[in-house]
Amino acid sequence: MPFDTELTRRLGIAVPVVQGGMQHVGYAEMASAVSNAGGLGIITALIFPEPEGLRQEIRKCRKLTSKPFGVNITLLPALVPPNYEAYAQVIIDEGVKIVETAGNSPGPVISKLKKAGCIVLHKCTTIRHAQSAVKLGVDFLSIDGFECAGHVGESDITNFILLSKARQTLKVPFIASGGFADGQGLAAALCLGACGVNMGTRFLCTVESPIHHNIKEQIVKAQETDTTLVLRRWRNTTRLYKNKVTEQALKVEQESKTGEFSEIAPYVSGKRGREVFINGDPEYGVWTAGQVIGLINDIPTCKDLVARIEKEAEDTLKERLALVKPAPKL
Within this chain, do residues 264 and 158 fall inside the same structural domain, yes or no? Predict the structure, then answer.
């Protein structure tokens, strides 16, 4: 039975599952596979060094799916920031109507997208940031709990609290992000007030994911304890897969006398992280993974994964509803 939530209605998707924008992963093949499966696939804009590369990827995705898909733009601190508004203009020019935003000071980009009639899903790790995003006119909030991969924020609040707080305080529909891998998780998120879920690490471990098979097998073997946090000292806390490089980075962070970021920079190089996904050596560099890594036990196609999540969620909601019994007549 198809789900009917604010997310499925507004985005035109069958299952309220969004593939998070992932660096080195969110290409057209990945996004189209998720969209064809009934969820919302996402192309990651900043994979491409220039906006023109994103334009070509959007056109490629259109050839691979007739279903809705979106584009992610994440605004992060950088010595030479990308031209975010140029990427946004490409999205607008190419007629993409769904955009996931995240990161710092997204106001100008969100304003540009909204003026063009785009539906904006903004990812945030605190209710305070969510409320600021509401003022910017976003359509959906993606509430990112401390369990998530990548940038976890500095508040360390897990989704069980964040989602309930969002339900109590927010007037804009929200998606649950961080810690979701199956239909039971989707059912729980819906019960806590979300209108869908966002999954990154789970989609990382699928047949269509453009990473080395060895890394997918490593995810299947991993436990929920196999991630670690780095860069807290610089208020850029990031959850990564726990390997030799992250342990070295953490040692530098904890023992550095100067606190200069240059001391840790070689260990957290994005270039080395990208090589992990290409060469298949999980110890070669840092790569992001959420605590949900401990719940992933196979490498399905996106079609099979989304169908399974849909069925599990439906069965779970029916089973839980059956716990409510009529009161006996006196």
Answer: no
